[in-house]
From TrEMBL:
Pfam families for this protein: DUF7638, DUF7639
Organism: Flectobacillus rivi
InterPro entries: DUF7638, DUF7639
DUF7639 domain span: 267-321
Transmembrane spans: none
Protein name: Phytanoyl-CoA dioxygenase
Residues of the DUF7638 domain: 22-121, 159-264
Origin: domain of life: Bacteria
Length: 347
């Protein structure tokens, strides 16, 4: 017995030591599917469905909580006629003659089927037990942060050692060769490879193809009155009125993202950086540099060069002068609050 205890030392306590702390990152497969959020207005969004049973619907939830979001009308399967659909970074349109594919029940079943497709045995599904937050100290934080869902393709699908390449995705309308208009998803990669999905069959292009597609109206942001739009696995509607971002600005946004994927500073970050340098050392040259950087930002993205409060007002005041103050006071009806921008010291 003494020999046994000596060998296995079953009663010995573990020595207290400072161990190295580690983490592990795991990639979870998922699907991005078209969906609707009803938050005052009806917002088109990508519902992100993951193999561990989590769904991102403007916040991560488990299956039980997703069903609750459906029952409470946060996630909706349809938009009533006469209402408007808002599509972030694309536009807003009033609709009629909506034909929708799902009820609350069938949309839940569809999401469940996607999880089962990703995870056939439904092993290790997340269970939030009714709460999507946890206590860290005295603060409630999300159990899982809202993820940025990145599209991917393989560099060589037939290779045993194929490499997954991540890109970025955007929404456009695509007038397909079946004479139907789809709300499509366009994914761009650092090689200039383009995939257009949420169509009956995906389209493959190169970045340099897009100008021609825009010119002939195949790829567009501008819908015609009376045009019917299809959203795969969700439904369709007819356009009554509304407008979208100029296609030229969207194509510029794609080029900006392509440059960023290839290691360049994106136009918003560049403008914000030069603005900070200007504030520390206001000169005519830096003001000219700021003007060039600001005007290189796609027009619909320029409000993001400042904070949520200042938007691009401070930058525009430096570049264009007091006309910006007048615009503010006409738009908001009270005195311009950011009138502390320095003028060039060498002017």
């Amino acid at each position: 017995m003494k020999l046994f205890d000596k060998i296995f030392n079953s009663n010995k306590t573990t020595q207290t030591v400072d161990l190295t702390t580690i983490t592990r990152t795991e990639v979870l497969e998922g699907f991005s599917i078209p969906g609707m959020i009803h938050n005052i207005h009806y917002h088109f969004t990508d519902l992100q469905v993951y193999s561990d049973g989590l769904i991102n619907c403007w916040g991560m939830v488990d299956l039980s909580m997703f069903q609750d979001k459906l029952n409470k009308g946060w996630v909706v399967p349809s938009i009533p006629d006469g209402e408007a659909i808002s599509i972030y970074n694309l536009g807003n349109w009033n609709i009629e003659q909506g034909e929708w594919q799902h009820t609350k029940e069938t949309l839940y079943d569809y999401v469940y089927s996607l999880i089962k497709q990703l995870n056939p045995t439904l092993e290790n599904l997340q269970n939030y037990n009714g709460s999507d937050s946890k206590k860290v100290g005295n603060v409630n934080v999300a159990k899982h942060s809202t993820s940025t869902a990145l599209p991917y393709h393989y560099d060589d699908p037939n290779s045993f050692f194929r490499k997954r390449i991540n890109g970025e995705k955007f929404h456009f309308f695509y007038r397909n060769d079946d004479n139907k208009t789809y709300l499509a998803e366009l994914s761009i990669y650092k090689s200039g490879y383009i995939e257009i999905t949420n169509l009956p069959k995906k389209k493959i292009h190169k970045l340099e193809d897009l100008d021609a597609l825009a010119q002939n109206g195949t790829l567009t942001t501008d819908l015609k009155i009376g045009e019917t739009v299809l959203i795969v696995n969700l439904g369709s509607f007819k356009v009554v009125s509304g407008s979208g971002i100029d296609i030229k600005f969207k194509l510029n946004e794609l080029v900006d993202k392509f440059n960023e994927l290839n290691g360049s500073e994106n136009s918003i970050a560049k403008c914000a950086r030069i603005f900070e340098v200007y504030k520390q050392n206001p000169t005519k040259k830096l003001r000219d540099d700021l003007k060039a950087a600001y005007e290189a930002v796609p027009e619909h993205r320029r409000i993001f060069v400042g904070t949520m409060d200042t938007k691009d007002y401070e930058v525009r005041q430096v570049i264009y002068g007091d006309i910006v103050k007048k615009e503010w006071e006409e738009d908001y009806g009270y005195e311009y609050p950011y009138d502390d921008m320095p003028k060039p010291i060498d002017e």
